[in-house]
Input
Amino acid sequence: MPDRAKYFNQLAKQAAKCQVCPNLSDQSAVLSSGNGSLTAEVVFVAEAPGRLGAGRTGIPFSGDQSGKNFETLLDHAGWTRDQVFITNAALCNPLENGNNRRPTAKEIRNCSFYLESVLKIIRPKIVVTLGGVGLQAINLLLGTKHALGKTVAQPITTPRFILIPLYHPSPRVTHWRRTLPRQKRDFREIVVLLKSL
Output
């Protein structure tokens, strides 16, 4: 797409003014040059900015333990932030009683325009979802019903990109569901796949 930066900047300005979700209207959308490269071959789609992470820093996966784990995984894959693009199913930090909460299905739907637009601008070879909510957002765009437990780390060919559902790198997940060493292997497998494309 010509003028990617121009279209992306327009999209980011639109997101910054968005007031569609009543419960998120006091939060700032996390969509800027801090999300990564507009020519990235790999786009990561996670859940939502966290109150101690991107909700505070304005940069996805930064400022909290999930961010530290993600940096570890990126480093293990041999990538830097300026080689990938990171976004979320919901661009604003959903809060309940001062704590992070899962974005609602309606909030994910409301933000799907931004996710769709980002993917059209970047046109990645691979989309990696991090957690069930990220996968839910991609399912919404594709009209699919992929379940994380059944598809984790399995490349799924779609008409536009290869989808790879992975678990989220949060401390809770790495402790109980999929350890950080196992997630490191998942990331290395993406690197191998990318080289084969």
Notes: The chain has a mean pLDDT of 95. The first helix runs from residue 4 to 17. The radius of gyration is 15 Å.
